[in-house]
């Protein structure tokens, strides 16, 4: 088998990556975290998928989630491989529950997917059909690891060829195992023929017992049916009486709900008789009567207090009249103060303005007189001048003007004097009017105070406050007494409601207990009715079918089932004997097989250790466990007790021995080494690489390493070779590559 190409659309860190492999040695040297192990798992996943072997349902390996694409994209792979001279291109989509695989012939790309039959998991295992190897067997044989084989129990049949053992033996052994599995080991198993036959025998035995018991019971069914019918009628009458009683309880429950809600409200005068009439117990009736008597006593006390309050009405009326007189007195005092204020304001204005007005009048009067007298003198001077000048007419005119100015000055002086006297007389009259109004208000106020026997205004105020306080104290006392009475009444009603609800809860508990008892009895009665009806129906059916189902037929079915079980037990014993015989034969073949495998492993171990360890044994019956002959110490050593480097060499020899033996029966299989030589010292590594190069001439090998030791040692051998190749890993970031 050769793997030519691998295209990764999405697998772990790889995305849009293409790889082409040489037919011989392929070396991948890169540091850790470069994707070497991911590439190795991608090769296995492209060939076999990521489902487990040897399970019926589709179960996925842990690697499915581990290598889910890191980047957005499809979980897809495509591989080009060659088997038996034919090339196939296998394309896989690894989506869970929807995994798809298609296979094409290369180079014409003819799809041949449907030529491969699906297994019980609805899967087409192309590589398993091509090589005869499951995924577990393929990785066990081709992947050289420092761990035991994973599917050693399934590996043994794949090691035999036509030259060593007849392949029909394996097929016969598989067929015997299959038949034994179908028959089963235990009679109580559910999915085996033996278990089903045992269950059928048990069923037939039970049916036979029931038929015999039924046949015996039929003799008495006729008498029992009549008895059951009579009992059924009596039960139906009892059930009807229970139903009527339950209806009554339901109505009582509704009435109880109303009474429970009314217990939170204070009853009116008509409510108390109703409560007493609907009381269910004498205790409840006594409670209602007691509360009514206390409320009646509180009502009498309230009426007495009301009468006392009515006796205080005259005092309240007198206080109202006094308040009216107080308001009237306030109005009088307010008017008096306003009148006095007006008179005082007028007197103050007269006193403040009188001097200035006299001064201004005098100045005004002197100015006018001076004007007229100045005009008079000027006219006289002019007249004199004109008379002296001999102009007598003009002079006499000027003298007349002088006389007229003198008369005007005298008239103006007399008018101003009369005006001032008239104004002073008006102000005095207005001041006197305001004084009269204020005196009248004082007179009315004094009369009002004398009416209430008050010496003065302060005494009137003291009397008013005393009467007002007496009335307010009495009213406050009455209000406190009324509040106390209401509090007592509210507390009494609350206590009544609480006591009533206690009685109602007791009543409800009794009724609920009665209802529960009736319902339980009704349910039991219904079940009894159902049972008796079923018994009647079953008995009637048995009587009607007695002629159709005979006891002889049931007994015949039981004997037939017993015979079938006995035959299966004989077959199982025969198959077990045949299988044991074939396994013994196969064990003899193993003795012939072991030397061939041990010889290959010993040759490889001798080459890699320089002859230090040249005798190796693999035990097929112990999962191909490894033992080595320690020649210097003359002892047999199991691989677990060897050094790490020696253990790696033993695992290398074990895998190569099994790989070479299986490859001889089929065709050369590839080899995979993932950092397998990490514990090798330089000398061991050099010998191991020489062995690898010899193997690479016949097999395709994939060597993954995180160091440059292998590439340096192999560089001279790989240069210029078309069969071998040194690869450089790098992550392809393109997301548009199509596989």
From TrEMBL:
InterPro entries per the UniProt record, alphabetical: P-loop_NTPase, Rad50/SbcC_AAA
Entry keyword DNA-binding: no
UniProt KW Secreted keyword: no
Pfam families referenced in this protein's UniProt entry, alphabetically: AAA_23
Gene3D superfamilies: P-loop containing nucleotide triphosphate hydrolases
Assigned keywords, A-Z: Coiled coil, Membrane, Transmembrane, Transmembrane helix
Domain Rad50/SbcC-type AAA: residue ranges: 5-235
One GO biological process term: double-strand break repair
Gene Ontology molecular function terms on file: ATP hydrolysis activity
Residue ranges of coiled coil: 218-259, 322-352, 508-592
TM spans (from-to): 369-388, 394-413
Protein name (database record): Rad50/SbcC-type AAA domain-containing protein
